[in-house]
Amino acid sequence: MNILFLDTSALLAIATETAGRDTILTAFDCADIVAASGLALTEALPALDRLTDERYARVDLEDAVRLTWDYLHIVPLDARCTERAATLARERPLRLSDAIHFAAADRLPSNLTYATLDPNQIPTALDLGYEVLST
Predict the structure, then answer these.
(1) Do residues 100 and 85 touch, judged by C-beta distance below 8 A?
(2) Residue 52's pLDDT is what?
(3) Distances (CA, A) of 114 to 42, 46, 51, 56, 133
(4) Which contacts qualify for 52-60: CB closer than 8 Å, 24 or more apart?
(5) What is the reported pLDDT for 2?
(6) Which residues fall within 8 angstroms of residue 123, CB to CB, at 6 or more apart?
């Protein structure tokens, strides 16, 4: 089974003209399951407001993110996820939000591909045994 996990940067790339967008879209189309942490939408929506000052462009971007969201399997931010995130953040040089994404990915089968456009996440993803999709 081909599982793709999107962090917030990968989710945003799908909705925007960003370097790496085509690579992520191709992986999205080929995956049997595409998943994300419940945090990804919470992070993505305010980020859209920083991408453009144009009201209608923001609305279009939000629509694109929410449409993508409808196709994802969402890993909930429950106690199990937050406990694992706390452990990861204590063991590694991670921002808490990144630790939450990794904790969510840990809930899925280990043969997943972790998609991120954040180079700071790549070493941890590789250490956790994930294949990494990035630019």
Answers:
(1) yes
(2) 81
(3) 19, 22, 24, 31, 6
(4) none
(5) 95
(6) none
pLDDT tens digits, one per residue of 75-106: 999 999 999 999 999 999 999 999 999 999 99
pLDDT band at residue 57 using 50, 70 and 90 as cut-offs = confident
By residue count, the chain amounts to 135
E strand or H helix at 24, and its extent?
helix 21-30
> Exposure pattern of 99-131 as b/e (b: 16+ CB <10 Å)?
bbbbbbbbebeeebbbbbbeeebeebbeebebe
Distance CA 10, CA 114 (A): 9
For the chain, percent of residues with pLDDT exceeding 70: 100
Say how far apart CA 23 and CA 59 lie, in whole Å. 24
Q: Are 85 and 23 spatial neighbours (Cβ–Cβ below 8 Å)? A: no
Q: Which two tokens stand for residue 43?
A: 């992070």
Please, what is the end-to-end C-alpha distance for the chain in angstroms?
Answer: 23
